[in-house]
Amino acid sequence: MSLKEVYINNTSSFFPNDAVFNDEMEDYLGYINATPSRSKAIVLRNNGIKRRFYALNKDGKSTHSNAQMTALAVKALFKNNPADINTIELLSCGTSTPDQMMPSHGVMVHGWLPEGNAFEVVSPSGVCCAGMHAFKYAYLATKTGDVQQSVATGSERFSISLVSKNFEDEAQKLKELSEDPYIGFEKEFLRWMLSDGAAAFLISDKKNETGISLRVDWIEGFSYANELGPCMYMGCEKLKDGTLKSYLDYSPQELMAQSILSIKQDVKLLSKNIVPYGGVGLKAALDKHGIKSDEIDYFLPHMSSEFFKDKIFQQLIVNETGITYDKWFVNLSQVGNVGAASVYMMVDELFHSGKLKAGDKILLLVPESSRFSYMYSMLTVC
Question: What's the CATH architecture for 7-211?
Answer without folding.
Answer: 3-Layer(aba) Sandwich (3.40)
